[in-house]
Design a protein that fits this description.
The chain has about 70 residues and is an all-alpha fold. Helix content is about 60%, strand content about 0%. Helix 2 runs antiparallel to helix 3. The chain is elongated, with a radius of gyration of 16 Å. The N and C termini lie far apart (about 55 Å).
């Protein structure tokens, strides 16, 4: 379990995951509690699919982002 988590969290992650990891670091969580929290994040953000894509060598999906929009009158 620890090996899978370590391998997964070494990849470039989503900004929301990074925010949670930074929170864990600031709180100084260690030991069993850290393992539980990392497992929760792993399942909450479906990081298994990220790991599977990296292992298969697939490129990350590009998600369009709206930067600016105009309204029509």
């Amino acid at each position: 379990k620890i090996n899978v988590l370590e391998k997964t969290f070494r990849y470039t992650l989503y900004p929301a995951v990074m925010k949670e990891l930074n929170l864990i670091r600031r709180m100084g969580i260690t030991g069993e509690r850290l393992l539980e929290r990392l497992s929760d994040i792993y399942f909450q953000y479906n990081l298994r699919s990220l790991l599977d894509r990296k292992v298969k060598g697939e490129k990350e999906q590009i998600v369009p982002r709206i930067i600016c929009s105009e309204s029509l009158i």
